[in-house]
Design brief:
The complex is a heterodimer.
Chain A lengths: L3 E4 L2 E5 L4 E7 L4 E9 L5 E8 L4 E4 L2 E6 L4 E6 L8 E9 L5 E3 L3 E6 L1
Parallel strand pairs in A: 2-11
Antiparallel strand pairs in A: 1-3, 3-8, 4-5, 4-9, 6-7, 7-8, 9-10, 9-11
Chain B lengths: L4 E3 L2 E4 L5 E6 L6 E7 L5 E8 L2 E4 L8 E5 L5 E5 L8 E8 L7 E2 L3 E5 L1
Classes of the chains: A mainly beta, B mainly beta.
């Protein structure tokens, strides 16, 4: 059974801190990994997509890395802002199942 | 269209009634997925379509749930004889081939009273 684990489940930090969200997965047939953001009561917004042949992707203050050998991905957020408060979900596309498999998410609160 | 469109955005229905949820994917996207997110929970896979066929229906919770996709485009998710436990946000996503990422709609919030 494919599983995706996200740690921590919740995180509260003061504004300006750099932080790391962790995602681990067990399926070795990962095709790509995608990080999403979900605001309360809203749909999912794609943040970064990393292909299995890549090691990292960057967008603004966000950097995501992928290590297939260890089954891990991290999302690094630099200089966090209150507007970053949301739930962050990682999901990988498995070439075994043809499905996007989600973690439970990390709920981030950035305090002004 | 420019994004994945879902309708209605909110639906309140009485227990026992049937509901239809609609998803209009990005033009040209061949694969379409339905997920369900209950309050405070993660995303639960329901069904996906490749073209008009559904290779994987394993996530449908019961035979009250069905989905179809016509013309390789719009999909409808139908829930018959709704129950209170069906209350959730139903999310739709589409992708061209999977390897170029997924785009999600804003979801339909279903409340069964």
């Amino acid at each position: 059974k494919q599983e995706v684990t996200q740690i921590p489940a919740a995180l509260s930090v003061p504004e300006g801190e750099n932080l790391v969200l962790n995602c681990s997965f067990t399926d070795s047939a990962i095709y790509n990994l995608q990080w999403f953001r979900q605001d309360p009561g809203k749909g999912l917004t794609s943040l970064l997509l990393i292909q299995s042949s890549q090691r990292e992707q960057t967008s603004g203050r966000l950097n995501a890395s992928l290590d297939k050998s260890s089954g891990r991905s991290t999302l690094y957020i630099a200089a966090s802002q209150p507007g970053d408060s949301a739930t962050y979900l990682c999901a990988f596309y498995s070439s075994n199942t043809g499905k996007l498999i989600f973690g439970q998410g990390t709920t981030l609160q950035v305090k002004p | 269209g420019a994004g994945v469109s879902q309708s209605p955005s909110n639906k309140v229905t009485e227990k026992g009634k049937d509901v239809e949820l609609r998803c209009d994917p990005i033009s040209g996207h061949t694969a379409l997925y339905w997920y369900r997110q209950s309050l405070g929970q993660g995303l639960e896979f329901l069904i996906y379509f490749q073209g008009n066929s559904a290779p994987d229906k394993s996530g449908l919770p019961s035979d009250r749930f069905s989905a179809e996709r016509t013309g390789g485009s719009v999909s409808t998710l139908t829930i018959q004889r709704t129950q209170q436990e069906d209350s959730a946000v139903y999310l739709c996503a589409s992708t061209f081939q999977g390897y170029n990422g997924y785009t999600f709609g804003s979801g339909t919030r279903l409340t069964v009273v």
